[in-house]
Amino acid sequence: MTKPPDWEGTLEDLDRRRQHAWAMGGPERLDKHRGKGKLDARARIERLLDPGTFREFGTLVGGEVAADALIVGSGSINGSPVMLGAEDFTTLAGSIGPGGNSKRYRIAELALRDKIPLVMLLEGAGFRPGGGHYGRSPTDLLAQAQCSGRVPTVAAVLGPSAGHGALVAPVCDFRIMSKQGAIFTAGPPVVKESTGEEISKEDLGGPVTALPSGVIHNVADDDEAVIADIRRYLSYFPPSAWSYPSALPADEDSEPRATPELLGIVSRDNRRVYDMRAVLDVVFDRPDWFEVQPQYGKAIICALAHLGGHPVAIVANQPNVLAGSIDADAADKAAHFIMVADSFHLPLIFFADNPGMLPGSRSERSGVLRAGARMFAAQTAATTIKLHVTMRKAYGFGSMVMSLLGFDHQSATFAYPGATMGAMSAAALGRATHAGEDVTAKLRDAELQASYRSAEHMGFDELIDPRETRDALLASLRRALSSRQAAAEPVSRTVILP
């Protein structure tokens, strides 16, 4: 394209400045970065977004500091618009200068204003020393907190992330890390200076620490795998809380079908464990559901899936971990997951099979009652569609946090015949009351009849054959979706607690 003579010098100057920003930290630093098996910030953006959709802004922020070490803009993921930012570690270690801070604030502001998701790709050293972050100026975390519960937010930790930059992750709905990622309040040099402790960045904030602590939800092998999981995660969500999730086109996977396989998976003997994941493989449209936080609070499975093509959120007890007993970590995980799902109108489906909250001194010291109360508050406050199945057992508070409670606004509640329930198991009640053998036998018989007694008093909408599980849930979901006759609105909640 030819340039008129009076524009030539001006446009050449613009091009020179852009080229400087696009060059990031320069060839040497880029080669070193890529030599570690990582994508650079711009390559990450290109891989994350649909081809040809990235529109950058703030390119010239930072002047001689290329893009001020932060690349931001808009694009599309799975055909839907998003806002995103990517820290550029090759430029001043991805540190945050005043210009970068303004860019971070701006993309969060626009994500909320335009009602689209916000994605942050993190690899940076936090606030830049001497960066001029003083006085009255906005912080990106303020704008990001205002996004909470209104637009989906995702953070990926793709290298070391420290200080202020690291705080972006726990404020987001979904946090994922590559195996080369590490996240911490302050890096190893600061730790050594402050406390004398010598520790590697991997031990301080890598997956071995960040997953058990709950700071990070999921881990993937490398940058490409993390980016693929982000695209997959967002595919279940609407653009914002002002819209409902979109269903997939109908295909054979979304049709009604019997689930006879469950008779071989779910043992009639309450004491025999099984893997709830096998149940989810059978019940949902295809066995490619997406689990959130699989390495934390393993006694509960939290996952995203499709039922009849409709995106749903699953909260399921895991009988092969602690016999399904709900510990503090599992309850904390489920509480956060429920709040996220409810905020974006994903129907919640509960599969209960637990002997209650985990008892014992260690569990009590971990705050199991506080965590259980948080989960209970989250699910009772949920305004989205709720469906419930009790599979074999659900006792005490462990049943209530799984939405087995009358007048809990469920659209449908089901149980398998022979499911046992109550304040506690017959065996535990017998021991607690020092009952004799004859009384214990009567308690056990009453326990075995509990599902029928409950059904006789409308404790459930229906007792179902396990082979009817998918069809019962699908029919109930399709009926419940007819309630959405008005435009979606955000849930009345200030913020999703991290």
UniProtKB/TrEMBL annotation:
The signal sequence is none
Q: List the Gene Ontology MF annotations in alphabetical order.
A: propionyl-CoA carboxylase activity; transferase activity
Task: Cite the CoA carboxyltransferase N-terminal domain residue spans from the record.
Answer: 7-249
Q: Does the keyword Hydrolase apply?
A: no
* Alphabetical UniProt keywords: Transferase
Q: Which Pfam families does this entry report, sorted A to Z?
A: Carboxyl_trans
Taking every annotated instance into account, which residue ranges of this chain make up the domain CoA carboxyltransferase C-terminal? 249-493
Tell me which InterPro entries the record gives: AccD/PCCB (IPR051047), AcCoA_carboxyl_beta (IPR034733), ClpP/crotonase-like_dom_sf (IPR029045), COA_CT_C (IPR011763), COA_CT_N (IPR011762)
User: Family per UniProt?
Assistant: Belongs to the AccD/PCCB family.
Q: What protein does this entry describe?
A: Acetyl-CoA carboxylase, carboxyltransferase component
